[in-house]
Every structure is written in C-alpha cells, then in structure tokens.
Amino acid sequence: MMNNLQDTVLLHNGVRMPGLGLGVWKVQDGDEVAQAVKSAIAQGYRSIDTAAVYGNEQGVGQAIHEALEENGLRRDELFVTSKVWNADQGYESTLAAYEASLNRLGLDSLDLYLIHWPVEGKFKETWRALESLYQAGRVRAIGVSNFHVHHLEELMKDAEIKPMVDQVEFHPRLSQQALREYTKAQGIQLEAWSPLMQGGLLDNETLLELAAKHGKSVAQIILRWDLQHGVVTIPKSTKPHRIGENAAVYDFELTGEDMARIDALNEDRRVGPDPDNFDF
To answer: Which residues does UniProt mark as catalytic (predicted)?
Structure first.
C-alpha cells in the first residue's frame, strides 16, 4: 500500500516509478507550465509526465532544472516521462523524435518513453526504436499509451522487450477492468490519464457521499481509488493549492465496500478518443 507521495511501484525491469505524478496536458508552455512543475516538485511530487505533442517540453525542462536547484534534489530523484507523437512514428523518425524531446527538455535521458497512440502499421517499428534506445541505456523504461489488449498482444508477438507501462484513459466511468486484469497478468504497469474525467465526476452523488464520509474532496476519493487499484496516476493541475490537494491522499483508506461502490460507476464511457478509432 502506498503511504506517501514518494512511494513507488516496481516496474518489471526493476525500475521504480512514483505512484502519483503531475500531468501537463493542455498546460501552456512557458510560465504556466514552469510554475505548475516547480510547485509540484516543491510539494513533494517526483514524477512529471509530458509529451512532444503537448508543446511544453521546453518549459517543463526549464522548470525541472530550476526546481532541482531550489529544492536541493538530484536529477535521479525525479521521474520524467515523454511520448513519441504519431507523425514521428517509425524506426528512424522515433530515434530522431527522442533526441528532439531530450533537446527541448535539456536532459540527457528520460525515465520513461511511451508510444503515444497505436498507429496501425507503424507502432511495431516505433517499438523497435524504443527497444534500441532502452538497450543502449538511453532511457530507463519504455512503454505505450492508449493500447487496448489486442494492441499489446500484437506488439508482443514480435517484441524483444515487454512494455513496462500502458498509460490509458482511466476513471470511475471507464474502469478498464479487462485491460487491468490483462496488464496485471503480464506484469505491465497500468497508468491513468484523465483520472478525474476532466472534472466530469465532481458532482457525482456516490463520490460526494464518500467524500463527506472521509472528509475529503471528490478528486481525492478518485485518486485514492486509483492508487488502491494499483494504478499509477498523473492528475493535471496548474493551481498550487489543487496540486497539493491532489497529493493529500495518503492519510485515509477506502474500504472494500467504498471501492466496490466506485467500481459500480463504470459505464465504459470515454472523454478522449477510442484507441481503435482515432484519426490523428
């Protein structure tokens, strides 16, 4: 069980990844993203998740450098994730995209590099590039994002290395049970994006009731549910008080009955695109 913000999960290659991190999707490059990242690190966050397509890697990198200095931390105390965008998929282009991300971030390596979406006909070559980066010691862990079970099965037919992480949309309306069971059996760590359903669950009656019961916010109830399911989660916020609130989920525990009530909210409902049907 995770007891504090620095607690980690063990990936199948022996690398430790924080159970909770900061996501920066739709956070503007420059001051906005820099302030969010610096606030998170100052408040104890050790995991930052960005992507090439977010257009804010430069601001994230700058904030990381400043935050390390301000907080007396070493680079290896942080866990930094980025992702290769769809237009860059393919073997050579993925290797180039990795260098470009590192360049924007001002880092020598990443802790985790993900394939952002399963682009048909391309994701296997992209994976081969990730494997070679990993084998060359250029990245500590590699994984995928938005992969269904059948995408993972297809990838692993030819893969030398099994993905360490699958980052997917995950929240009480989309609890991904089949994928959770599959990744658990395969030793692949599931990670949640959009864990709060982009604010779409904050007035849910069941969650409001549980929030009142535990003296917590609805967001804290949902994030605690993620962690108790063993799902790594990266809520996004730009407000320092909200960043702090999202991390204050280690001083209470949901009961088995609480967990079941939240599980029952599942409707297989997405706020993002379906990985079987996207056109970008």
So the answer is: 54
Report d(CA 56, CA 49) in Å as an integer: 11
C-alpha count within 13 angstroms, C-beta hemisphere, residue 141: 22
* pLDDT of 3: 83
Q: Alpha carbon of 237 to those of 48, 199, 247, 257: distances in Å?
A: 12, 11, 11, 29
Residue ranges for the known binding site are 116
- Nearest-angstrom CA–CA distance, 269 and 254: 23
Helix (H, G, I), strand (E, B) or coil at 33: helix
| pLDDT at 1 (0 to 100) | 62
Residues 32 and 59: their CA atoms lie apart, in Å, by 8
Are 51 and 79 spatial neighbours (Cβ–Cβ below 8 Å)? no
Active-site amino acid positions: 54
Annotated binding site for substrate: 116
Two tokens, residue 224: 């605690």
**Domains, the chain, with CATH or none:** 16-199+232-252 (3.20.20.100)
Specify the pLDDT at position 273.
92
Per-10-residue mean pLDDT for the chain, 280 residues long?
87 98 88 92 96 94 96 97 97 98 98 97 98 98 98 98 98 97 98 93 97 98 97 93 96 98 97 91
Tell me which DSSP letter residue 209 carries: H
